[in-house]
Amino acid sequence: MIRAPDPSPIGDALAWAARIMAIGIVMFVPGVIGTWLDKRYELGFLGPACFLLGLSASLIWLVKIGGNSKNRRSG
Q1: Residue 43: helix, strand or coil by DSSP?
Q2: Number of neighbours of residue 30 by Cβ within 10 angstroms
């Protein structure tokens, strides 16, 4: 039986760093866009609503990543 090589610790750390940065961007960018739209169209609800949308999307993504990493270790 041929086994796949184990990933290097540095490669694994870089993959996790990329995931964390992507989650941070997903959390932050919708709020910035919503705030910009609030200023442009003189509204007051899009900034906070988009920040909440980004927060919920990033939390869902974190839960999915956490579930996948747990399943990988046990299997």
Answers
A1: coil
A2: 21
Mean pLDDT (whole number) for 15-42: 94
Are the C-beta atoms of 55 and 75 separated by less than 8 Å? no
Does the pTM surpass 0.70? The reply is yes
Residue 26 near residue 58 (C-beta atoms within 8 A): yes
Domain ranges (residues) in the chain: 20-68
- The tally of CA atoms less than 13 A away on the side-chain side of residue 18 is 6
Distance CA 58, CA 71 (A): 20
How does the average pLDDT of the chain come out, rounded? 87
- Beta-carbon contacts of residue 42 (< 8 Å; ≥ 6 apart): none
